Amino acid sequence: MTDIIDRPNLPDSAPARREPISTGSEWTFELIQQYDDEIAKCAEEFGLETYPNQIEVISAEQMMDAYSSVGMPVGYHHWSFGKQFLNTSKGYQRGQMGLAYEIVINSNPCIAYLMEENTLPMQALVIAHACYGHNSFFKGNYLFRTWTDASAIIDYLVFARNYVAECEERHGVEAVEEILDSCHALMNYGVDRYKRPAPISAAEERRRQKDREEYLQRQLNDLWRTIPRPDETDEDKARRKQRYPSEPQENILYFIEKNAPLLETWQREIIRIVRKLGQYFYPQRQTQAMNEGWASFWHYTLLHRMYEKGLVTDGFMLEFLQSHTAVVYQPPFNSPWYSGINPYTLGFNIFSDLRRMCENPTDEDREWFPDIAGGDWLETVHFAMRNFKDESFIQQFLSPKVMRDMKFFAIENDDQEEFYRVTAIHDDPGYRPLREKLARQYNLSYREPNIQVWNVDVRGDRSLTLRHIPEDRVPLGGEDAEEVLRHVHRLWGFDVHLESVDEGTVVDEYHCPPWDADDY
Amino acid sequence: MGMTHIVDRRLNGKNKSAVNRERFLRRYRQHIKKAVADAVQRRSITDIERGESVSIPSRDIHEPTFHHGQGGKREVVHPGNQEFVAGDEIPKPEGGGGDGSGSGQASPDGEGMDEFAFQITQDEFLDFLFDDLELPNLARKKLKDTEAFTYHRSGFTTQGVPAKLDVVRSLRGAHARRLGLGGARRKKIRELEEQLAALKSAPGDLDPAFSHVDQIEALEAEIARLKANVRRIPFIDEIDLRYRQHIRKPKPATSAVMFCLMDVSGSMTQTHKDIGKRFFILLYLFLKKNYKKIDVVFIRHHTSAKEVDEEEFFYSRETGGTIVSSALKLMHKIIESRYSPDEWNIYAAQASDGDNWNDDSPICGKILAERIIPLVQYYAYVEITPQDHQMLWYEYEKIMERFPQSFAMQQIADPGEIYPVFRQLFERKAA
């Protein structure tokens, strides 16, 4: 692929200077079109592959609407989105927070919302960032390719909304709301982390709804048959003595959808819908730094390319750079504005550093990244974008230079000690452990408690037992755990237990309905 | 290239979240209702031109998920190191468990972080207040709205009823007509009279051939004829008559008058009156939502009734016995003099502790049934007492049986019951 990529940003390939597209800061639809045309040309020079773009200009109020439906252009109705909306509009009206300049939807065509309040340079930045940065990431990154189907999502969302609305009509808003509440509580536990899921398809969902209903019922009957059949074989007997499921299941929603004894078909379908949406958002949760870093890297690179071509003015670049600097600003840990690592900064720094290592490698780069140093930067950043998620991306590409630039350090908080301990900093002995720790920080299974379906008492009280495996003795957030367990109980219909098991010992347990002290 | 599609969505509705917002309000209606109820007690009767700030404890709207708790061993990477080196130990803060995620922090605007605060609009405020409420007959009255008219003067007309005859106009017309019709003849009469006078004053000529006698006779005859003619012109004719003209303009029934009747006799304590006040406020708010203009008439009574202002109504004290019918009579008088039922939607709310002179209660029933109920949209009675009913209650029960659509009554014992009572009184009646 390197052969067909033009080499822009090199002195000998700079085209002749042209007149800038515009000089004012007011945008018009014609200007947006012109800027998009030129940005598209630059993106093509760099080999960015994208879905077709659909740019939608919206007002601030509409942006708040888009915000509160977690960026889904179509969504089923739920009170939590209303809460989000009230929160957003309150913050916005009091001037406590600005709105995002853009929202972009992983769909084909790729929908990007632009706010009408933006100035022209901002619109150009947003187009480069969303329509070419995020868009190419959606199209190229393996997680998105594996887990989502951009061309089907809008259809699926419409299907989901209609289905939920239909259920509300038949069974009442509150009955549906209850199921949705419970599903939302478990949304992050509705994904198979390792198995490749079937892609989302509304048509397929509709077609298979009927079949699924019959099949499920048969399966359920099999599972819950408690009276031994006369023709029961030894094999059957043995099977009934085994734990069920025989292997722990990490996809709790899936397990409930397929096995909960009392749920009605429409309830199972709603679980399925929430599960599928969880699956749709799963790649985004795992590629925050990469996705934002990639988009930032490209708005920066594409607009500089525009400047080289003479298509934008100095004034344009000044405004653009000011916005860019704000976006990738990382407050230090002791700043009042610090709220964790800024994913834009981290991602942008790593991608920029990859380019630097290719173009201006140092001895350190040659030692740490022999395959990259002095290589082809375009090929390198594309490779990184396609084949990694945050965790592995950091593990693979975070260089000592970026660690030094960002002055990273790791601090350990052990509840058995009286001190916080600094375990690694940006120095020679620290680079590798620091990089490992930072990578782990982006590992979803480290960020979220490891909870799996452990057993169902198929022959007894039909209770469901979940098992939590703590890491480094970190317990579950207790109050929330109890509440989520109530939601599990609502879905499962029989007693639900959750036990924390650390190296074979039960260290904590939750029950719904709660156990009285007398029961012990 | 060329693949981009640019759409202007700004004109699409901005209220995509309206349903979700409504769902949120519905889910937390208990919280919101409480905030609204508190506000009603706090506010004065006319102070409803605004929404209300509602706070909900964060834990009530929290969406739970499985997450890590405090404890164990956690390692976090931070940016911006200044002087740390590996192995540094930093003492933990006293008594603090660690990450500083303490609860109950105050925010700059005074709202606790543990509260989820948001504004409901005035409309939502009122909607929550009235929820499903609707006055009986209201829909019917609304349909009848165009049957209310006002009359506007619009000049004069030649036809009409005697009561609307405009005498001055009519006589002025008659005068003009008489002048018009008689003028030429009077002029002729004057000329002929002058000739006659000249002839009569001339020296007599004995020659019969030259005598003026014939001429004089002829002139006198002509004058008499003309004078008779003039006399026959009518002093006033039908065509002179002018009537004042009024045209009917349909008038939307946008006005309501609310009568607040309260017993202020010695048996009514301030607590009773406060309960009554809240009851009146709620009715006022409801009318405010449905009518553009609302008059409020306060009638207080013990043994005699008096129209008073709001302040006196709620806060002055009297002693002595109770004659409820005095208030009803006064109300009827005020309706007759000031609030024609053609133009006003009349509502009445009466609060009492149920005390009345027993002889008076049947009179109350009679006045209500015959003179008041037929004029009003709705009459609501609350008896503020935890005790057994007296005569008045049983009289009113008969009224309720006769006029279930326009009369309602209820017993309440403490302030906490006001809102439910209000609901019950004005509960939507199936059409």
Corresponding CATH architecture of the largest domain in chain B = 3-Layer(aba) Sandwich
Tell me, what's the shape of chain B?
Answer: elongated
Give the strand line-up of the largest sheet of chain B: 10-9-8-11-12-13
Into how many domains do the coordinates of chain B divide? 3
Strand numbers in spatial order across the main sheet of chain A: 6-7-8-9
Low-confidence stretches of chain A: 1-14
Helix content of chain B: 40-55%
Query: How many alpha or pi helices of chain A?
Result: 21
The arrangement of helices and strands of chain B along the chain is EHHEHEEEHHEHHEEHEEHHEHEHEH
Number of domains of chain A: 4
From the alpha-carbon coordinates, what is the Rg of chain B to the nearest angstrom? 42 Å
Tertiary shape of chain A: globular
Termini gap of chain A: 68 Å
Helix percent of chain A reads 40-55%
Question: Major sheet of chain B, described briefly?
Answer: 6 strands, mixed
Say how many strands of chain A there are: 9
Strand content of chain B: 15-25%
Pair of chains with the largest interface and how many residues each contributes: A-B, 100 and 63 residues
Task: Give keywords.
heterodimer, A: 520 residues, alpha/beta, four-stranded mixed β-sheet, three-stranded mixed β-sheet, 21 helices, B: 431 residues, 3 domains, 13 strands, 40% helix, elongated
Q: Care to describe what's here?
A:
The complex is a heterodimer of chains A (520) and B (431). Chain A is α/β, with parallel strands linked by helices and 520 residues long. Chain A has 4 domains: 2-141 and 288-320, no CATH class; 153-224 and 235-285, no CATH class; 343-446, no CATH class; 448-519, no CATH class. Helix content of chain A is 53%, strand content 11%. Chain A contains 21 helices and 9 strands. In chain A, a hairpin with a 2-residue loop joins strand 8 and strand 9. In chain A, helix 4 packs across helix 13 (314-327), helix 10 (252-259) packs antiparallel against helix 11 (265-286) and helix 12 runs antiparallel to helix 13 (314-327). In chain A, 44% of the residues are buried. Chain B has 431 residues and is of the alpha/beta class. Helices cover 40% and strands 20% of the residues of chain B. In chain B, helix 6 packs antiparallel against helix 7 (213-232) and helix 10 packs parallel to helix 11. Chain B is elongated, with a radius of gyration of 42 Å.
